[in-house]
Write a structure and sequence with these properties.
229 residues; alpha/beta; TIM Barrel; 41% helix
C-alpha cells in the first residue's frame, strides 16, 4: 500500500472515473475520509494532501483528535458517522459540520433541542438500514417517509438526505443502493425544502464504485486511504 497522499490521489481518480462511467460530472461525489482509530498524524498527512472532509465514529476519540495541537489550525469539515447516543449529542453538536447517522426520530429531536441551545441549525442525514440486518442501526425503509416528515418539522435540524451501509454481499448491494436513490427521490419530493434534500451517503472501500453508479453523492472510505485498522 502506498502513502496516504498516493492513496488519496488514486481514490480521487477512481471516483472521477466512476462518475464518468455513470454519466455524471467527475466532481459529483464528495470523499469522506473515515479516520476512526487513526492518529492525528495520519489525518494531518491526508489534510496536507488536500483532503478536507473527515468522518469519525466515536465521540471521545473524535474530541481528542479535534483538540490535538497537530490539527488545531486545520480547516477540517468533520462528519459524525458513528452511532450517536443521546447523552453524547451535547459534546458534538457544535463540533461537527454534519451528523450522518440519525437513526431514529427521538435522536433527531434531541439533536434539534441541543442545537437550539447552542444557537445553531445542524445538517443531518437519516441512516437507513437498507439491508434489514439486525446488527445495523437505522430506520426501516418503510418508516423513512413518515419519519422524514416529522424531522422536517423540527426547528433546529436541516435534513439533507440519507445515509446507509450496504450488505457485505456485493451481488445484492447494487439493488440496495438503487432503492436508496429511489427513497431519496421520494423524501425530497415530499420535503418542504426539496432542493436541500440532495445528499446520498453510501459506499465504502469495497463498494464505492457501485454506490457511485447508483447515485451516491458522498462515499465514506477509510481502509483504502489509511490502511487496515
Amino acid at each position: 500500500m502506498g502513502s496516504i497522499a498516493q492513496n488519496l490521489a488514486e481514490i480521487q481518480e477512481e471516483i472521477s472515473n466512476a462518475c464518468l462511467r455513470a454519466g455524471r460530472e467527475p466532481n459529483a461525489v464528495k470523499l469522506i475520509a473515515i479516520s476512526k482509530k487513526k492518529s492525528a498524524e495520519a489525518i494531518l498527512d491526508a489534510y496536507q494532501a488536500g483532503q478536507r472532509d473527515f468522518g469519525e465514529n466515536y465521540v471521545q476519540e473524535f474530541l481528542a483528535k479535534k483538540r490535538d495541537l497537530l490539527l488545531a489550525q486545520c480547516q477540517i469539515n468533520w462528519h459524525f458517522t458513528g452511532h450517536l447516543q443521546s447523552n453524547k449529542i451535547k459534546s458534538v453538536i457544535d463540533q461537527v459540520s454534519m451528523i450522518q447517522t440519525i437513526d431514529k426520530l427521538s435522536t433527531a429531536e434531541a439533536v434539534s433541542k441541543r442545537a437550539e441551545q447552542a444557537g445553531l441549525t445542524m445538517p443531518i442525514l437519516m441512516e437507513v438500514n437498507i439491508s434489514n440486518e439486525y446488527s445495523k442501526s437505522g430506520f426501516d425503509p418503510d418508516e423513512v417517509l413518515s419519519a422524514a416528515d416529522s424531522i422536517s418539522e423540527l426547528p433546529h435540524v436541516e435534513l439533507h438526505g440519507l445515509m446507509t451501509i450496504g450488505s457485505p454481499d456485493l451481488s445484492v448491494v447494487g439493488m440496495e443502493f438503487y432503492h436508496m436513490r429511489k427513497l431519496l427521490e421520494e423524501v425530497a419530493k415530499n420535503s418542504p425544502n426539496p432542493d436541500n434534500v440532495c445528499e446520498l451517503s453510501m459506499g465504502m472501500s469495497q463498494d464505492y464504485d457501485i454506490a457511485i453508479q447508483e447515485g451516491a453523492t458522498m462515499v465514506r472510505i477509510g481502509t483504502s486511504i489509511f490502511g487496515a485498522r
